[in-house]
């Protein structure tokens, strides 16, 4: 999520970029255990244990499987084993739960021999997302299947026009984000301050639209400023942390054009916009300030990835 966090739930636009290096694959097969309750499904992630595979996220994947079987009339009761291999760090604001759900949908489609439309895939991923996170805007379910940067607005998407050169540097703070806590914190703030929600959504909408224009018109400096402004909006709402703020400041000090937290907040990742020639120094400063790992995404090199 480049811009639009939290406000997207209230109908504001969001800008979403695919990260081709971060992938999830899944495979499904009939269980070899020979026993088990009807409709039993097991999920394993042997190469990258995922905290999100327990609790609500795992419940979401089970609900997804039930909905898949019901939708396609394959409720035959045979137990299924699903194996998930994920390169996306869990609970960092990078869409890992939606990506896992999408991979599982395609694995089940392969097992049962069904060709799915994009609409059917989205609906099934949303089933899991709504269980894992409560009411979901759908932005993650759309974004993890994107082949190009997208503008997301009220459930629909269109491809973004990219007129800027530059690199997005994503830095992992090493701290698990707390999306549900962040959502509850923001909602509580809205309830205690009259007009707070409207002011937040209006400001977020304005920044996102200005960023979209800058992205299309080749204004990297203006785009970077909007990123930092959006971070300030989320920080003022109490959704950042000292470690995340330190990473944002480190990126800016190193010459990044802008930086912000990405995702639900209270931990997770930072995304910084930098010119290619400054990327090495920005990455160095981020790591020196506590980033556990980094990834880069070229603004004009995102299109065409599945």
TrEMBL record:
Residues 67-140 form the GHMP kinase N-terminal domain. Pfam families: GHMP_kinases_C, GHMP_kinases_N. Its EC number is 2.7.1.36. It comes from the Bacteria. Residues 212-290 form the GHMP kinase C-terminal domain. GO terms for molecular function: ATP binding; mevalonate kinase activity. One of its GO terms (cellular component) is cytosol. InterPro entries: GHMP_kinase_C_dom, GHMP_kinase_C_sf, GHMP_kinase_N_dom, GHMP_knse_ATP-bd_CS, Mev_gal_kin, Ribosomal_Su5_D2-typ_SF, Ribsml_uS5_D2-typ_fold_subgr. It is found in: Cytoplasm. The keyword Transferase applies. Pathway: Isoprenoid biosynthesis; isopentenyl diphosphate biosynthesis via mevalonate pathway; isopentenyl diphosphate from (R)-mevalonate: step 1/3. Residues 33-57 are annotated as: Disordered. SUPFAM superfamilies: GHMP Kinase, C-terminal domain (SSF55060), Ribosomal protein S5 domain 2-like (SSF54211). GO terms for biological process: isopentenyl diphosphate biosynthetic process, mevalonate pathway. Coiled coil: none annotated. Keywords: ATP-binding, Cytoplasm, Kinase, Lipid biosynthesis, Lipid metabolism, Magnesium, Nucleotide-binding, Transferase. It is an enzyme of class 2 (transferase). Belongs to the GHMP kinase family. Mevalonate kinase subfamily. This is mevalonate kinase.
